Amino acid sequence: MPVHPITGPFLPKREPLFGASDDQFLRADRAVFRFSGPDAHKLVNDVVTGHIPHEPGVAARWALLSAQGKVLAEGLAGWADDALWLDVHQSVADDFFKRMKMYRLRARVVIDDIRETHRVGFSEAPAPELISHKDGNELGWRIIAPVEVAADWVADDKAYQAARIARGIPQLGPDFPTMDAFAHDLGMDILDGIDFVKGCYVGRKSCPA
């Protein structure tokens, strides 16, 4: 590596992940749900595999498992505006919504299905005016916005998909169907999508430390 005699190594310029640094890419295959209320964090954290955040910042990767440990849904969970925002593949959105309402029982949680009003996207940088969460696996920022705002996003997400695949991040839908794989099969332990410290959650026995 070339070295400047005063400032040190010449570091290569970092190339944008998804094209132009200010581009925002639509993930048309993702659905978004909002969990709010005093017990929202506890509900989600007690049901899915990941270490779910309780403050703004980095989003957590997670999976919802069957009792046998097969992945039913997966995505990112981030905290903003006193709520958790989770995205899942459209193909499992109805089942995810149904299961989370079942697990809610008497918990003080409001689960909003906002598929009709909001869209999920990704960008190179955060969008301060939108719901923005940094992907902990160095895959830019997940952004969530009302449909009228997302109408201006880039519809072709090939750049995002290429970056995701290059980082070894599988996703339900493009890469595998529901009830087909265990969390370890997908490397979710490597991607920090499994919390080995917290207590029981659905399918926990299939995720040994």
Detailed description of the structure:
The structure is a single chain. This protein is of the alpha+beta class and 209 residues long. It has one domain: Probable tRNA modification gtpase trme, domain 1 (Gyrase A, domain 2), CATH 3.30.1360.120. It has four helices and eleven strands, in the order ββββαβββαββββαα. The protein has helices spanning 40-47, 93-104, 147-150, 158-166; strands at 3-4, 8-9, 24-26, 30-36, 58-65, 71-80, 83-89, 110-113, 118-123, 131-135, 141-146. It has a nine-stranded mixed beta sheet. Strands 1-2 form a two-stranded antiparallel sheet. A hairpin with a 5-residue loop joins strand 10 (131-135) and strand 11. The longest helix has 12 residues, at 93-104. The chain is globular. The chain starts with a strand and ends in a 43-residue tail after the last helix. Residues 1-13 have low confidence and may be disordered.
What secondary-structure arrangement, pairings included, does this model have?
Elements: E1 3-4, E2 8-9, E3 24-26, E4 30-36, H1 40-47, E5 58-65, E6 71-80, E7 83-89, H2 93-104, E8 110-113, E9 118-123, E10 131-135, E11 141-146, H3 147-150, H4 158-166
Parallel strand pairs: 5-10
Antiparallel strand pairs: 1-2, 3-9, 4-7, 4-8, 5-6, 6-7, 9-11, 10-11
